Amino acid sequence: MNKIVKIVSWVFSIVFVIVGLALMSKSILASLFSILLAVLLFPKTKEFIQKKFSYALPGKIKVGIIVILLVGIGIAMPKSDVSTPSTDKQEVSSEQPAQTAPVTEKQAPVQEVVQNTPPPAVKPDEEKITDAINTSLGSKTNTDKPRIVSVEIDKYDAKMLSIYKYKSGESVVGLLIKINADENLTTNLQKGTMHDEATKIAQSVFPINQTIGDIIIWSQLPVKDQYGNIKDDTAIVYSISRSLFNKINWSNFNHRDLPTLLKSENSVDDRNNYFESIKF
Fold first, then answer.
1. What is the pLDDT of residues 241-271, one digit of tens each?
2. In the β-sheet with 173-180, what is the strand arrangement from edge to edge?
3. From CA 182, how far away is CA 199, in angstroms rounded?
4. Angle in degrees, CA 79, 81, 72, rounded to 5
5. Buried b or exposed e, range 177-216, using 16+ CB within 10 angstroms
6. Pairing between strand 212-224 and 173-180?
7. Rounded-to-integer distance, Cα 246 and Cα 79, Å
8. How far apart are CA 178 and CA 232, in angstroms?
9. How far apart are CA 17 and CA 125, in angstroms?
10. pLDDT for 196-226, tens place per residue?
């Protein structure tokens, strides 16, 4: 019987030494507990203690220590090593990496859509000019007509650049603006209203873009032709250059002086002019 116990002790002692060595890379504490258990089970340990200390370890205490060491090994073991389902999942994940590929492929288009979101649209100059005039004068006249009839941008050609002393290839444009004017009771008041509108248009439009070289404003009123038919037609034309715009102190300027100023400046720069196309 003693022989069988010794053989079993030897076997378990060797097993726990191997286990302890294997656990070193995963848990030092579990490895230590396993080696202590191997030493405790080793038959020669009992003999060594008896010879050295003249003391025999009681069986119950020995069993208790074995149980404590076994529990300690179980607690100190990493969870991934103890839990079989977790290990299985890891193995499946490592063996079948292709399963994660569809997720990446589905996510990629979403990221691409976010990255390719277009920036906010930039308003073209015609729209900016229209907005500026409507803000300054109102989008409707006092007779409920649309304020702006048309806005066109005319680019200076090489000849015009040369005439008005711009650099060759420089980007300069002229604005052709047609509006409906507010109506007033008398000729004097009507002209004053239209001069004021032209003044406000110049102040609101020139600052939009430094490439604007001049503006021509066709101001319309209801006009009766020789056959008695009434239709909206050009009443006054205002032509204003940027160079003149830059000269004027607008905070002190009287809009009623605009016709006289434009006519006098025409000799300096023919882009400035004032013309009444109807008889008031």
1. 999 999 999 999 999 999 999 999 999 999 9
2. 148-155, 173-180, 212-224, 230-241, 273-276
3. 14
4. 70
5. bbbbbbeeeeeeebbebbbbbbbbbbebbbeeeeebbbbb
6. parallel
7. 81
8. 11
9. 86
10. 999 999 999 999 999 999 999 999 999 988 8
